[in-house]
Design goal:
Oligomer: single chain
Number of helices: 5
Shape: globular
Structural class: alpha+beta
Helix content: 10-25%
CATH superfamily: 2,3-Dihydroxybiphenyl 1,2-Dioxygenase, domain 1
Number of strands: 13
Strand order of the largest sheet: 7-8-9-6-10-13-12-11
Length: 247
């Protein structure tokens, strides 16, 4: 699958931030390989995560605590890391990554409008006709679509259902990428045990749009947010979240 955009995490000092982020996730970061100078990259199998220097969009656009996620268009597209590993003479499956980008969460104030505006970039719904699901970890209604030309295996359109993390993301950053859903090769239980042993704080397990999941804590309430999902995702809750923000 050719990807027409790359997900980037803008921070003031990528060299200081990227190795720590990778360590929290249980993987590694490499210097270089980005779309601009000073970038670091993390191989997430179905996509590259690029940690790059903050790009000011205006004179008052100062770096935010925790950084921000931005999609960077790639003219002509690029192969996923897994595809790049497999050459024409080697048809063996690419080696599994410690963590894989299972989904990119897109914050919006209106699911239907976001689905229309992003429609040309998205694939089909994996379960056509299914109702929207709930993500209790970020406080959102979620609509899952295949990723199409965007990074990861899926895109999750997220609309706030509580005054929670997603609402905070929208208040701070506006609409756009705000959540990375990551699937560890070792499975959720083993990953969470290893993470706690490394000193990483994770939430209690909840059932979200991609199945059993935990939130990686410790970052700003406005995100970007890291959600770890189980290797074999269970059935997501089909309960519709409230149409208006709950207290």
């Amino acid at each position: 699958m050719t990807r027409w955009a790359r997900v980037t995490w803008q921070v003031p000092e990528p060299a200081a931030f990227a190795p720590g982020l990778a360590a929290r996730l249980g993987t590694t970061a490499a210097e270089g390989g980005g779309l601009g100078p000073g970038s670091w990259t993390i191989d997430l199998g179905s996509a590259w995560l690029e940690v790059r220097p903050w790009l000011r969009e205006s004179p008052t656009d100062h770096p935010l605590p925790g950084g921000r996620l931005v999609l960077e268009p790639i003219p002509g597209g690029e192969a996923t890391p897994e595809e790049a590993e497999v050459t024409a003479d080697d048809e063996a499956a690419a080696a599994p990554r410690p963590v894989r980008l299972a989904g990119l969460g897109w914050a919006t104030v209106e699911l239907d409008r976001a689905a229309d505006e992003l429609g040309m970039w998205l694939g089909d719904a994996p379960d056509p006709g299914a109702p929207d699901t709930a993500d209790p970890l970020v406080g959102a209604r979620a609509r899952v679509r295949d990723a199409g030309g965007l990074p990861g295996d899926a895109v999750l359109l997220l609309e706030p259902s509580t005054e929670g993390r997603l609402a905070a993301s929208l208040a701070r950053d506006g609409e756009g990428a705000s959540v990375l859903y990551l699937r560890p090769a070792s499975g959720l239980r083993a990953w969470a045990a290893d993470a706690r042993a490394r000193g990483v704080t994770v939430s209690a397990r909840r059932v979200g749009p991609l199945g059993g999941s935990v939130l990686v804590a410790g970052g700003p309430v406005a995100g970007p947010h890291l959600v770890i999902v189980d290797t074999h995702a269970g059935r997501a809750s089909r309960t519709r979240a409230a149409g208006t923000i709950a207290p």
